[in-house]
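User: Okay, second chain of the day. Same drill as before: sequence in, structure tokens out.
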Amino acid sequence: MTFAIGLFDIFTYAIPGALHLAVLAYVAGRLHWVDLAAVARGPGVVVVIGIVVASYLLGYLAYPLGARVSRWLPRRRKRNAREEFLRRNPAARGCAFVEADSFLLLSALQLHDADAAMEATRVRTTGLMLRNSSPAMAFGFVASAVELIAGPHRVFAACAAALFAVACPVLVAQSRVLTHWANVKTLELSFWVPEVEETLAARRKTE
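Assistant: Same drill. Structure tokens below.
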């Protein structure tokens, strides 16, 4: 049996989940719910496996939280991938792939040229990683604010609170930029893979 974790799983779930796990571990240690020193003294393989599994599962919980935070934060500017692509590549106007749904287009690109689609997938998954990491920054801000009021290291807590307060909206903003870049990149790559246009054009004629 082969067990494989892809690029999408690592960026979208494992990394944001690890950040959430770090915040939870800090809070649990400060409230004396868990003896972190005792956990660290446990069998190394078991600890590592536990961290990996917990991070992965927390990553799934972070996905809808990240999506909700992204909806809550207002957008400073509107971005349209198709308009930007056509403005820079007017020769593609009227092509079937330009009007296709971005996820359907990415699937077609993966089918006909998986290597080319990897770049668009990498940018998209990086954007999801940033978006799904934003709730951990919000939780970190809350923990830092509590430490600022009740903790012994108030200067450190104040710096951490400021950092987390800035990081949360910045991560969401950058995730939106990367998602836009991924959509533009998908269109640009599809322009150079004629099989994508041929398939979509043929389907459009049959409709």
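The CA atoms of residues 42 and 88 lie 57 Å apart.

User: Thanks, on to the next one.
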